[in-house]
Amino acid sequence: MLSQKTIDIVKSTVPVLEEHGTKITKRFYQMMFENHPELLNIFNHANQRKGRQQTALANTVYVAAVYIDRLEEIIPVVKQIAHKHRSLGVKPEHYPIVGENLLAAIKDVFGDAATDEIINAWAEAYGVIADAFIGVEKEMYDAAGWDDFIPFSVVQKVKESDEITSFYLKPVDNRALPSFIPGQYISLKLDQIPGEEYTHIRQYSLSDVPGRDYYRISVKREKDGFHPDGVVTNFLHDQINEGDQLLASAPAGDFTIEIDSNDPIVLLAGGVGTTPLMSMMNHVLETQPEREIVMVQAVRNGQVHAFREDILAKNLNHPTLQYYACYSAPTDEDKQEGRFHKEGFVTKEWLDEIVPNVAKSQFYFCGPVSFMKHIYATLKEMGVSENQIHFEFFGPSMSIQQPEEVLAN
């Protein structure tokens, strides 16, 4: 329990955190990696390079300061981050390292304003926040059944489009796989990539239903392998084949379908954002065949349209499933063969036409950041309430309301 004095001191730093939060977290990561380079084996270098991780942490620190007297109100945020931590293998022994470097970064950025009183208050507050994370993560590790990465064998590799390939994974020791909730992901840990000094860990959505003796992930090839965001995906596409082994974590993530609800669902997928939504769609079709589904895929053209034939077949066999494709740049062949329902981008007018019951539907969407921000703004324009909206960023959380230039990928 924090004293009122500590709470007041922490809250007094909120304006500075609002203005200089990202500067603090940039300094934090710089200091931590200099002092503990082994942690470069855990963090995503691409997100570091893009500044997304620094921004996400700055937002978390700011929210923690604002709600320091009502920490129970940020438990959903704690759980969301804890899912990611559990999937990365973050352990209790990492928290003192983070605390030491975070306090040093605050002191460095605050300068003369970083009095002993402020640093001591933040040290006390950090201890309480860290204990909350450690407790939540312990429950997640216990529920998962294992707390490390275990070897899986690639039993099947299937090309889904020019950009996306599926990998079917079975545990080498033939253990029973823990179930998962559609929408969750697993982490892959790769330490065998040629020319890479550090281990890379990446999260990939599970793209099939739970209850199978395998996990399926469907991975998009990035444009090149020379930047951190393309190294891992291109290695999987080019170097990993059937019979090879990969290290994987147990499923995690809080972007999950409400399996106990009968509300109609609308699944809006941009590009590879289809992957968690495929799991949701297939699970509902198997377990709740009477539940209404609208599935929308927004892609550039037919060459990069993954799972098209699979979804079309299900569309024919399940009258409760309505399926639509939106192509932003269809080829002449796409137009001749009528492979899509709308050219351009997903719009309010189109969704009003194809979604039978906007007021009662639950909306789930995933894809490139620009696509998601566009979809969110469109849903709000349609009058969809916040409790009907569910989404997940691939990577660190960020604002859903900032405008972007490109709408689909």
From TrEMBL:
| Chain spans, region Reductase | 145-409
Required co-factors: heme b; FAD
Keywords of this protein's UniProt record, alphabetized? Detoxification, Dioxygenase, FAD, Flavoprotein, Heme, Iron, Metal-binding, NAD, NADP, Oxidoreductase, Oxygen transport, Transport
Annotated active site: 95 (charge relay system), 137 (charge relay system)
Which annotated residues bind heme b? Answer: 85
Site (Involved in heme-bound ligand stabilization and O-O bond activation): give the residues. Answer: 29
Which enzyme class? oxidoreductase
Q: Where does FAD bind?
A: 185, 202-205, 393-396
A Gene Ontology molecular function term for this protein is: nitric oxide dioxygenase NAD(P)H activity
> Which residue ranges does the record assign to the Globin domain?
1-138
Checking Pfam families in the record gives: FAD_binding_6, Globin, NAD_binding_1
Q: Which SUPFAM superfamilies match?
A: Ferredoxin reductase-like, C-terminal NADP-linked domain (SSF52343), Globin-like (SSF46458), Riboflavin synthase domain-like (SSF63380)
**Catalyzed reactions:** 2 nitric oxide + NADPH + 2 O2 = 2 nitrate + NADP(+) + H(+); 2 nitric oxide + NADH + 2 O2 = 2 nitrate + NAD(+) + H(+)
What EC number(s) does the entry state?
1.14.12.17
Keyword match Phosphoprotein = no
- Biological process according to GO: cellular response to nitrosative stress; nitric oxide catabolic process; response to toxic substance
Name the site position(s) for Influences the redox potential of the prosthetic heme and FAD groups: 84, 392
Coiled-coil segments: none
Which family does the UniProt entry place this protein in? In the C-terminal section; belongs to the flavoprotein pyridine nucleotide cytochrome reductase family. Belongs to the globin family. Two-domain flavohemoproteins subfamily.
Q: Which NCBIfam families match?
A: PRK13289.1
User: What does the entry's free-text domain comment contain?
Assistant: Consists of two distinct domains; an N-terminal heme-containing oxygen-binding domain and a C-terminal reductase domain with binding sites for FAD and NAD(P)H.
The molecule here is called: Flavohemoprotein
What is the organism lineage in this UniProt record? Bacteria, Bacillati, Bacillota, Bacilli, Bacillales
Quick one: which gene encodes this? Answer: hmp
